[in-house]
Structure formats: structure tokens, C-alpha cells
Amino acid sequence: MSGLEEDAWASPTLGLSPLSRVRLDELLQELLDRVGEVVASRERLRSLLDAVVTIGSGLELRGVLTRIVEAACAVVGARYGALGVVGPDRTLVEFITHGIPPELHARIGDLPHGRGVLGLLIEDPRPLRLPDITKHPRSYGFPSYHPPMHSFLGTPILIRDQVFGNLYLAEKHDAAEFTQDDEEIAVALAAAAAVAIENARLYAIAHRRERWLAATAEITTVLLGQVDRTNALHLVARRAREVAEAQLVLVLLADEETGRLTVEVVDGPAPDLAGAVVPLAGTAFAQAVTGAEHVVVDDLGKAAPWPAPVSTGPALITPLAAADTLHGVLVVAHPAGTASRPEDLPMLHTFAGQAALALERARAQDEREQLLVLEDRERIARDLHDVVIQRLFATGLQLQTAAQLASRPDLTQRISGAVDDLDTTIRDIRTAIFELRTPAVAALRTEIRDLVAEAAQSLGFRPVLRLDGPIDSAVPDEIRPDLLAVIREALSNTARHARATTVLVGVAAANGQVTVTVTDDGVGTGDSEPRGGLVNLRERAQRYGGDFTVRPADPTGTEVVWRVPT
């Protein structure tokens, strides 16, 4: 080998000039940088794929949202992250954070409502990247104890073109601000997050639907047996609260005559509402009752004038209707700060229908039991009238014949007394027959008895009461209050002025009129005209085209007679 060849092999420059060597170094460095970017992009893509797999690994919504925030912070290298759920009123109803310790989170206080820079994504759902969030014109600053934040990256989470929420990232690791690549990765992750959230929501809806169906089946099972209305309504309220995860459930029954609703059952932290009566007109319940449709209110406390304070979040009101009969409404109220669940309305409607059937069946059972009772009472009344009274009549006639044949005066007097006792017994049996043939809901006889019993305290003795005829069925409802007022006023006058030792109160319904007679053995009223309360009694009689008289009793005392047509 010649010396020239040896020099060529020994040269490290391969015949390149100094300028060419510099250019080669730059190309090699650029190649290394590109290789590094490819490797970094590959790692970030792998991290993005891992994040997508991670956020889709579960179907519990809260867990999915938490994993989305954690994965986003890891993929783009953010120190802090948050996911804000946007409510129907375009404010944040839920705010899940990452990177802030729980104790510091508690010291910061209330969650943001979606104003300031955070509200930009709500108003205009497009990705937003800022080098320093504090210098933005919409920045309101941070609350006390909030960690400092400068670089910011936000992107909306869209589900079928509807904004579910926004993903917020802050404080880029090892860099002053987030890059365009970070933004693209965050947007891709938000798209994957939307799918995971939708799957979690569908799973939650399917799970709740399954629970609604199970609760409805339980109510159906109750309908197969003996239905107790109170127990059935308590079961309805309890199951509705459990399935809907509600704060409060109310069952209100409607009274069409008075136009009011009565709280029959309360399940939740408001026991004082049991038995409360609220008007129907002018309230949120009116639409549910008159229109037989669902109503959603933001706060149950504002839906009606409650006797006790009520504060809740959104409430669903659905009618309890079956076979064209409206029984009332079912109210399911959620805690304040939570969003309503429109997807629950169809299942709630079905559930309310089963609850209404329970009410309908309970009423049918009550009517059937009442009918059996009335049939027994009718049989007893018929036997008393056709057998017992006829035998007593026959016995009385025989005694009257025996009295005419008796030669001794004392024997005749004793027989006549026995006949009078039989007459009294027959009258009492007739009264019992009328009571047996009176529907169980009528209570005029009971009210009269109670009124006469109350007068015993002021009189010093119990008046004698005689009831004749079908008082409960013959006296119209509009006359009843006046009839009771007449008895009350007459007994009150007797107690104040008569100084009587006996009082007889008689109420008779016959020949198309009702007559009230109050007779005492007191000092009498003299010849003076009725005045004071007695004038009121005359006016009460004239109101119905009747008459009122006050006359001396025989041998002493006063007799008050009040008579009106029925």
C-alpha cells in the first residue's frame, strides 16, 4: 500500500470540509430531535390510549368522572385538573377536582358556579388555551386558600351535541404553558370521555329502571292480597324515595269538594308535614291534578303555602290516577344542588299508576266490607220490624184487653204501665231500626247525642233524648248545622234561665219535615215575646220556610218547637 492510500484511510473527515462537517452535525442533531419527538409522540399516544382504556373501565358515573380528570392531568402533564358538570340553568352543578388535597379543598369552601373564565366554555363550547389565566379580562381571581394557577387549558365534553360539562386543566409541568399538542390530546380525551360518560349514564338509567320495575312489581304483589291503604301508601313512599334517591317523598290525597290536598304520608326529614292541608288553586299541584300530567318544580317549598318550612331541590309531581279517578299526587323531591332526572318520569308515571290502583283496590275493599255490614244490619232491622215489634204489639193489645177485664184499680194501673213500657220499647226499637238502615257515613244522630250529653254539665243532669224517624237520611246536609244550633241554643237557654229539673229533647223526621222539641219543667217564660237567642232560632226556621214557637208546658215549664220542611 502506498503512502497516499494510508493517508486517505487515516483521515477522520472523509474528505469533508469544515463547513460540511458543521452542516452534517446539524442534520444529525435534527434527526435525533425528530426521533425524540416521534418517541415522545408515541409515548403520549400510548398514554392517551391507556387513559381511554382507564376511563372506560367502569360504569359508575362518579368513578368515570374522577378517572377522566386524573387521566387528563397525566396525559397533558397538568398539576391540577377539574371536571365541571353543567346543569340545565347553565351553571356548574358538580365540580370534581384532582391535585388539591381534601383538607385544602374543604378550606376553599363552595364550588365555583361557572362564571369568569370557567364560564367562557359554557357560553362558547370550544377549546380554550391561556398562558396566564390571571391576566384574562374575565378573570375574577381565586378564593382564599386556592393554590396559584397560571397556564390553563379547557375543553368541553359534548354528548350528542349537548354540553355535559367542561374539562379544566392548569399549571403545566416543566413548561410555562400548554402546547397545541396538549390541546389536541385534551380534545381527543374529551371525545373518549363523552362516550364513557354516556355509557355510564345509560347504565345508571337502566339500573334505575330495573329498580323502578322491581318496586312496581312489589306494589303489584300487594294488590293481590288484602290492601290496607295506609300501609300501601307508606310502602309507595318508601320505595319511591329509595329508587329515586330522593330527599323527600310525599303522598297527597285530593278532596274535590273543598279543593284542597292533604298530606297523607311523608317519607323523609319532614315529619311535621303529615296531615298538612294545602290549597289546590294557584299552586304547582293544580296542573298535575287538573291536567293529569307531570310537573317539575325547582323547589318544593315554593310550590305551595306549606304550614312548616320546606326546602328541597328539584321535585317531580305526578298524579295518582286510576280508571279516570284522581286520588291525589305523588311528590318526589331531590336535595338542593342536584339536577332533576327527566328520564325517571316514564317509570315514575308507571309506579304512580300502580300506587293509584292500590288506593282504588283499598277503597273497593272498604266498600265491599261496608256493604256486608249494611246487609247484616238490614237483615237485623227487618227481623226486628217483622217479628219483634209485631209480637210486642200483640202483647200490648192483650194487656189492654186484660186491663178492661180487671176489676181492681191497682191491677188496671199496673197493666196500663206495662202497656206504656211496651210503647216506649217499640219506639226505641224503631229508632234502632232507623239507625241500622242508615249508611255508616251518616252521623247526625251521633252528633245530637253528643250535643245532649254535653248539656248535662251545664244543666246538672242529663236530658232525656227521643229520636223518631229516619233522621240521618231525611234531613238534608244544609239543614243539619241549623238543627244542631237550635238544640244547642234551646238547652243553653234552659240551663241559664229555667231552673229546670228535667228536660226532654225530641227530634222527629216524618211527613216531609223535621221537628225539634225541647221541653222543660222550669219556671217558664211568661207572656213575653221571644228575644235574644230565641229570635235567632225563629230566623233559622224562616230561612227554610218553617216555623218556630215558644209556649208554656203542662203543668209547668216551657216547650220550644222548631219545625222546617225537608
TrEMBL record:
Domain of life: Bacteria
Gene Ontology, cellular component aspect: membrane
MF (Gene Ontology): phosphorelay sensor kinase activity; protein dimerization activity
Name of a matching Pfam family: HisKA_3
Keywords recorded for this protein, A-Z: Kinase, Transferase, Two-component regulatory system
Domain named GAF: residues: 60-207, 228-369
Name of the protein in question: Histidine kinase
